[in-house]
Amino acid sequence: xxxxxxxxxxxxxxxxxxxxxxxxxxxxxxxxxxxxxxxxxxxxxxxxxxxxxxxxxxxxxxxxxxxxxxxxxxxxxxxxxxxxxxxxxxxxxxxxxxxxxxxxxxxxxxxxxxxxxxxxxxxxxxxxxxxxxxxxxxxxxxxxxxxxxxxxxxxxxxxxxxxxxxxxxxxxxxxxxxxxxxxxxxxxxxxxxxxxxxxxxxxxxxxxxxxxxxxxxxxxxxxxxxxxxxxxxx
Length: 234
Hints:
The protein is α+β, with helices and mostly antiparallel strands and about 230 residues long. The chain has one domain: Clam (outer membrane lipoprotein receptor (LolB), chain A). The chain has four helices and eleven strands. The chain has an eleven-stranded antiparallel β-sheet. The radius of gyration is 20 Å and the shape is globular. The chain starts with a helix and ends in a 23-residue tail after the last strand. About 25% of the residues are buried. Mean pLDDT is about 80; it is low at about 225-234.
């Protein structure tokens, strides 16, 4: 009788889904942390190799003490536009009210004023994938179908690999997340476009994460041309 009861209990208490658990742990870190510093890279593969920005940058993000949906942002990135070999240096600052973005190589100001959600530079299209301005950053991922595809090492970090699928208009949005087993932060996000073409994707990789570190206020102020990256307190 005891054996039967134990068997029934084991059936009722199912083990946690590893894919959902990995995403939930990642969501909790992204939701609760006060600040992030990390490196990010972006490129296209397959059909999208020649149609996607190639970029490498350093991010500093801090939530406002009173309104956590407000993010202060600093990005310094080297960007190569599709079809161009020459790299430009994209610099973006958002101090919580004023948003300035431009290429310091040319001095061209693209935007100077309140935050503009239409801005589509490397900074915008990369950090927006983490949805750090949302109460539940990965709610869209968690609402869809999650499949654990095993593990892989990304930049020396062992990660769980999760395929996320959710409806998007007349198609299915498919992303593959590699989430660190150690700190539960994303190390690679792949946007997949065609199920029958495994080589075509847009990739974002993340490394060098620092969480809840002090970031100097001047890191978010509008910099002068050719200002040097940095801003974390030693």
